Amino acid sequence: MPSEAVTSEALLAELKSIVGERYVLTDPVDTGGFLTDHRARYHGSALAVVRPGSTAEVAQLARTCAAAGTAIVPQGGNTGLCGGATPLEPRPTIVVRLDRMNRIRAISPAEETITVEAGCILQAIQGQAAAHGLLFPLSLGAEGSCQIGGNISTNAGGIAVLRYGNMRQLVLGLEVVLADGTVLDGLRRLRKDNAGYDLKQLFIGAEGTLGIVTAAVLKLFPAIRTRSIALMQVASVEDALALFARARAVFGERISSFEIIGSSYMDFVLRYVAGTVMPFAAKAPWYLLLEAGDSQPDAPLAAAMEGFLAEAFEAGLVSDAIIAASLAQEEAIWKLRHGVTGEFKLAGKTMSHDTSVPVAEQPDFVKRVEAGILAAYPDANVMMVGHIGDGNIHVVVLFPHERFATADDFEAASDAIDMIIDDVAMELGGSITAEHGVGRTYRKRLARTKNPDELALMRQIKALLDPDNRMNPGKLFLPATEA
Amino acid sequence: MPSEAVTSEALLAELKSIVGERYVLTDPVDTGGFLTDHRARYHGSALAVVRPGSTAEVAQLARTCAAAGTAIVPQGGNTGLCGGATPLEPRPTIVVRLDRMNRIRAISPAEETITVEAGCILQAIQGQAAAHGLLFPLSLGAEGSCQIGGNISTNAGGIAVLRYGNMRQLVLGLEVVLADGTVLDGLRRLRKDNAGYDLKQLFIGAEGTLGIVTAAVLKLFPAIRTRSIALMQVASVEDALALFARARAVFGERISSFEIIGSSYMDFVLRYVAGTVMPFAAKAPWYLLLEAGDSQPDAPLAAAMEGFLAEAFEAGLVSDAIIAASLAQEEAIWKLRHGVTGEFKLAGKTMSHDTSVPVAEQPDFVKRVEAGILAAYPDANVMMVGHIGDGNIHVVVLFPHERFATADDFEAASDAIDMIIDDVAMELGGSITAEHGVGRTYRKRLARTKNPDELALMRQIKALLDPDNRMNPGKLFLPATEA
């Protein structure tokens, strides 16, 4: 360990010589926002927050940190939900923010590819694609501030996974800086490449624990020129899946989103989210949001949606439904579904989950989870909302602000509820984290639920690529002593 | 190395006790077909060809071989084009054929998933999907005999990559037996799973060098119920790409294949492939095959195709075209495009390639490759055919049978032509092997062209998962002494 030889002062001087003095932040006024996670659950500390301007600078930072034994926490838009971008280990660490590396390096409509730096805001990439008559389909709540490097490092999901896959499926090429400063240049614009192991897959979803993603070549798609969005009231998750099968038969791959909203979540949204309006006369146990889209400007989607709903009514699968007739109505429907992390805090103490199970197991999952939580906490408000087309239902458990006397009491209840949900998920062949990743928040649950052979291989890969455990340490894995 | 301690006889007895005597083949009459590759370029030898009937048996075989220091070459349908399934190292080796493991373990129309064992024939999986009104989209020449384990291990491509991705994008879960016999059970039916590193990606496309794929969960899709296929005559690759852009605008994601056939390849097919007929009055420099499909039975694709072609004529991009009006005509068009490996041997000495470049670089690629080869070998017949929508044009160079006096002369010319093509591909940011993989055939070219940092990391991963180099040794990598 060479770290003893390098004082913090000397290291800071070196960092400054690499990126320029103004891009090495040490004043708490400047760094504070980058040392706390998006949900304000974690507060970390670092020698500095460093903002490199190029891949070469990132590589040089990595070499410098390797020589000094300093840890590196890469950070994109800092919108992650699991504390993955906050420096939390008690050791010399720098945060490497990629925000200055926000150039669109190239866009090729003929190839339907875009080459971007890690710090590009997701929305900017969507916009560039749209300006060329194309679509970059990744879409999620934080798209106005999250960065593509973070999306890649967390294998982001969102509302169009059903049609386009998650982030992993949208990456053609990747540039990564390894722990020792090697630049792994895999920025190929190829649709097919079987020349050896597909190394980029290692870094997608690795949450910065194996290297720093600095740039990527992404797939683009034909833009959606016709759209139809419906909101339905349904009696059960079983009926929702029956409707999903029917929708697949009618719309095929044109379905871009198939989302479910539970009754109590809907109540919550209507109460706390400004500007939301219940579009139905009565309540229902579940609400389904179906969006279909077509690249053809004259695709008869509206007629197809009417036909689909007419048959669904006739079959007794839907009790009421609306079809958006304007952009404003489309937005009003989506508003009922979209993220409300901020509002949760107003409503009380919440515990959010990101489970997935096989699509067909969701009725069982929902029933068992609700029953399990209510048996242990009869006063819990168990809300459900999510991507039923992907098997990914978010369970949000809400308690009144005053429910828990101490933070420890809250944590104990939170752990108990995690166990209830995780056990059901595991029995059904599910995952404790479908799209949010592991970060700091889920590492204990990962250690408890992951197949030991898989966890062992994960640790071996981590040790291979980051032998000194300097790349985003303390994330994904529990310390060996606790494992 | 414990191998000295175990005699061949003792090992064979142990193998027989695992899988049963009749499934350990040692008689050359029985093993011959499995020790020669599909193109009959490689002839290997093995202690035995072993046919396990279950994952547990594969795991036990792996443990036994680990203890004995015996190498394992996994083999599916033995239809690979790069010698990847032939045992070629001078050391104790067994071939593990997966053909008995051919059960469809489960199919879920509601989830659009199918769980299959590695030995399932691709066509059988396509058939099972179709029987449930669904589509398994992987499609390639050998689909009647290749096995899904081989498709996964080579990350197979084929004629529908443009729409559905290659094999990697069709795998949801994977079961793999590691070198030490550990069964890595990742057979999850999940659309989303961010619980740690996505380990299955390591084994997809690894050509059996990191473990033995024993089962997989695959994605299914809505069946195609309307189809339109056209064959066009075009003047240049530039025009072909202009037509691709127009086709994307008209058909969007409905395009499942966009294939190109060069003039001399067309001549070759018409001459050597029985039952092929030229559908046009005159010849053209290039032919384009466009297939569009829709899951809706009444999709107006025929009208769209007519409109597309009318505008293409008007723009001067197409000189003649036909639209298939029957299944027989569809098949007749595809016959002009499909694999003719057998016929190549009749026509002369051939050298086949599997290059990819970024889609927009293909005009440059085609021109430079043709000029380069003809400058060195003015008598070469340079034929081109491939997946222009994916940037993957196969260059096939044909010489008369008597052109080379000795096998060494042929090899020298073959190496020289490889260099010409590979250099152009590398300059254009391409890959020397788009879909066929590396196997034995391409390992020298891989070593020459692959970025050294990537190759070094590939070797580290190989060493991590297979420290004794017993899993399909001699594939992908050159021996360290030659590298």
UniProtKB/TrEMBL annotation, chains A, B:
Signal peptide residues on this chain, from the entry's feature table: none
Entry's Gene Ontology molecular function annotations: catalytic activity; FAD binding
Cofactor(s) listed in the protein's UniProt record: FAD
GO biological process, one term: respiratory electron transport chain
Keywords: FAD, Flavoprotein
Residue ranges annotated for the FAD-binding PCMH-type domain, each copy included: 42-223
UniProt cross-references to InterPro entries, sorted A to Z: FAD-bd_oxidored_4_C (IPR004113), FAD-bd_PCMH (IPR016166), FAD-bd_PCMH-like_sf (IPR036318), FAD-bd_PCMH_sub1 (IPR016167), FAD-bd_PCMH_sub2 (IPR016169), FAD-linked_Oxase-like_C (IPR016164), FAD-oxidored/transferase_4 (IPR051264), Oxid_FAD_bind_N (IPR006094)
Family note: Belongs to the FAD-binding oxidoreductase/transferase type 4 family.
Protein name, as recorded: FAD-binding oxidoreductase
Organism from which the protein derives: Prosthecodimorpha staleyi
